[in-house]
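From the shared-data thread, chain only:
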Amino acid sequence: MAKVVTNQDLQLRDPFVIPVPEEGVYYLFGSTDRNIWGKGIGFDVYVGKDLNAWDGPYAAFRPEADFYAENNFWAPEVYKHQERCYMFATFRRKDNNLLGTAVLVSDSLRGPFVPHSDGPVTPKDWSSLDGTLYIDEAGLPWMVFCHEWQQVADGQVCAMRLSLDLRESAGEPVVLFTASEAPWTTSFQHPRYPDQDNYVTDGPSMYRAKNGELLMLWASFINNTYALGVARSASGSVLGPWVQDAEALYQSDGGHAMLFEALDGRLMLAIHTPNQTPNERPLFLEVEEQEGRLRVVAEARGKISNWLR
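Structure, as tokens:
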């Protein structure tokens, strides 16, 4: 049954916010299974007016018995496109146990969402996650996504053209950059891969700055702590080349970000923090933008994150 829940009590990873000014509310999606590392139940949506108190959960997606995935339902992002609502979400396939991003569709932000693509649209033999939609200057759709570090060691961010109806790929994936190219990332050793340095790419999100620059927010790790960085396209195109900012935008165990304009006009950053289950919570921080450079407003960071300490 739906009830009111505040950010402090809301277990949610990978927050994705859709402001709806005509309704005076925000819709909040995210990875909402209590154990996102295990069997997937589905995705919920919450509705609120102030980015703190939310009505919900409302069931946005529940899989049918013959759904192609059973575990790891991650990172739903929802877009209004061509008069319908499309959800990009990551699932672990049953047939090969690899992650991939699929597309679901609904006529309403509240759902119910149903499969739109025939399984994940990312390459079948890749372990891919966190697909995000980008519409280029010509009006053509792309998916920007991560090629997982567990398969390539140095995690990649890739872009791939989509068909106009968003049902399938319309080209081969292109590697935009690897995690180790950023000056701020550090490697880590994993017991499963003891002889290699591993670098994570996670949660890419596109943003066109006021000065016209195309930015990408993406997450990785600094000394095993979750962090958020910014890359910028030197050409203004999704294909780059991409230049990494020297320092992380946020490095206090938070990431998987997106930017949105609040109902009062402020530019807001949505992340989850901390990065440990079941303690992850949505966090919304005001951001200042000057000539394409982003800065988290210090007062907002201190005020909102006090309860996390």
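Helices lie at 149-152, 298-305.
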